[in-house]
Structures are given as C-alpha cells and as structure tokens.
Amino acid sequence: MTATTNDIAELDLLGAGFRVDSAEVRAAAGRHWYARTSLGPAVLRYEDCAAVLHDRRFRQASADHLADQGITDGPVAEMWRDMILNIEGDRHGRLRRLVSQAFTPMAVDELRPRMRAIVHDLVDGFAPAGGCEFMGAFADRYPPQVMFDLLGIPEEEHGQFLEWGKTLALTISYSVAEHAAAIDAARIGLYAATDWLCASRRHRPGDDLISRLVAAADEGDRLTIQELRSMVFGLVVGGQDTTRNQFGLAMVLFARHPDQWAVLSHRPELAAQATEEVIRIAPTVPIIWRTAAEDLVWRDLPITAGTRLWLLVGAAHTDEAAYGPDARRFDITAERPVPQLAFGHGVHYCLGAALARTEIAEALPVLAGRLPGLELAGPPVLRPDISGIVGPDALPIRFRPASR
Description:
Elements: H1 23-31, E1 34-35, E2 42-43, H2 46-54, E3 58-60, H3 75-82, H4 89-102, H5 105-109, H6 112-126, E4 131-133, H7 134-139, H8 142-151, H9 158-168, H10 180-203, H11 209-215, E5 217-218, E6 221-222, H12 225-238, H13 241-255, H14 258-266, H15 271-281, E7 288-292, E8 296-298, E9 301-303, E10 308-311, H16 313-316, H17 320-323, H18 353-370, E11 375-376, E12 396-398
Parallel strand pairs: 2-10
Antiparallel strand pairs: 1-2, 3-7, 4-12, 5-6, 7-10, 8-9, 11-12
Helix pairs in contact: 4-11, 6-18, 9-10, 10-11, 10-12, 14-18, 15-18
C-alpha cells in the first residue's frame, strides 16, 4: 500500500530545538514508518530500524561524515577512512575477525574489580560535599581510566592520551574543518605513541589489549601498523566520549525518577538490566546513519543509491508495537521484549558494547548507594540530537552523602 502525502510528516533535523524523544516525532511515527527531512528519510519505528541495520544493502553513512564537511583528502581524512567503523566488505570482515580475538568478554570481565575501585575512588573525592559538577568530577574521568587500563597505557601517559582523545573526538562533530590543525597534531602524537607501545609489546607482551592486538593472527594474517594505529584511535575516542555522555544522560534520567534510583540502591543485582533501560530511554546515540549502497524499494519508499537514512533509534525505543503500552515508562525492573538498538545491529555491531555495558553496570549501583537523594542542581544543557553523540556538557547535581 502506498502512503499518501498527508500520511508522511516533515521533520527538521537541523532545527535548534529538535529532539528525537519529542511529541512531534511521536506524532510522525504514529502517522507512518518514516518522515521526510531535508537530509533524507528519517526511519521512526523499531521494526524498520532493526531491519535496516541488518540489511547489507545499506552501508555505514559515517564513512561520508568528513566528505560532507568538505574534507576529502589529507591525513585526517585518511585516519577517518581507516577506522573500522567506516570500512565495508571483506576488509571489514578481516579486521573484525582479528580484533574480536583480542577484545573478548573475558578480558572485559577481568576489569570489573578495577572498575569498582576507580568508581569508589572518584566518588570519595566529591561525595562529602553533597554535590558536584558530575561530568568533570566523574564522567570525564572514569571511562578513560578504564580504557587506559584495558589498553595497558602507562599511568604517566594517561594525561596525554586523555587530551589526544578529547581532541580526536572532534572528528565526530560538524566542526572538523575548524579544528583540523589540532586534530592532525593529536593524530601525529597518538600514532607515534601507538607505534612505541606496539613495538614494546612485541618484545615484551603483557596482559593488556595492545598486546593481544599485536599478537592477533588468522592463518598468519596480522594487523598492520596502520591498522593498529586506527584501532587505538577508535578505542581512545569511543572509550571516552560515548560512555562519558551515556553516564551524564543516566544521571539526568535517574534524577527525574528518584524511585528508580532508590530501587537500584537497594537492588544492585538489577545493574545490567538498569543499564539496558537507561540506554533504551536515553541513548547517547539517538540517531544512527545508513546510506543505500544500491537502488532499492523499502516498503512503499523508492530509495536511490547514495540516499542517507536517519534511523531515529531513540524514537524506535519507545515504539509501542515493539515494547507494549508502557514503552515510554522508565522502569529498571521491567523485562523488555526486544533489545535496544543503540549499539547497532548486524556486521557493524559496536565492538566496544561489552566494555560500555560493563563500565555502566559496575558504576551505577555504587553511585546509587553512595549518592542517595540524587537531584539536579541546575538544568542540563544537552548537545543537539543531530550532533551524533548526545549528552550534557555540564551537569550540576546534589545528594545526601552516604558512607563508602
């Protein structure tokens, strides 16, 4: 059945106040499975978002992210193209096979005690005051510390890697050209440090991710030095910015649902379920991009090769057809019938999903137990949903300090 013009809403993704979780988007999803935008079709419902993510006729649109900003050559563009996120086909499959040998759930699980120790140490620094700016006091510091421990980066190098990571995270923004010189300087520094670390691990392997990446082999095939550099680049950036912002969004959500914060403090065994519910209701990646690799027809929509689809997974996560009549309710005790989509699906499923989930699940019960009475001490200012990764730039909170 072909939709009429009146069935399909128009959304302004670039509008100053556009939010994926808005009433406007919910109304558009009630009318049809997609909406029109000036940037390409916006997919609104769970079934279609999940299916597009699995369909090999769509490729990663992030590969075009810098080209869309006029950056098509040079070292920064090459760095972006070499990132596993932006690679397709046989080469992507090869890298995925090699890296998956090193990035195992067992390696992540071994870090759980260290994660809890880092969380407690950070909370010790601000809990007695009864309030803090959460992003600077915790979210900016915890995920990088875990990633550096996982990679095996020496403690004296942590500060430098943190600065490189912050600068290189600008590649995800829409102001890459403005920051190109700083990004390239960070690239040069990170690549040189990665070369040194990989060389040292070849001679003296350790129990860390870089050692495992250096050793990873498939019938004699190994990662090249450029592939190792690109992998460390992706891990340093992904291990900081996305998890950082997901923590910020989690704290905003729990501050607005104090009953759920109290439940988590008394039932820490709900940590993994709470993590999934936080990501479902307030994903730091509310929009996933895909580009059609060929001409095709999706349901009632003809799509030409090169068309970008905007998968509004933040809207799909509250689709009643997928989650039932209480789809919009935040409830960490609820058993949800289908998984959230923020880590993607299919061949480009996020390599760091296990690490991000574990970091969040280890931290949230500690925070809930030690920061009872959580409240916002000021309105959070969030990045626009179109920015790729959403979260608060600053987040003042207050609470009643509890003992360790």
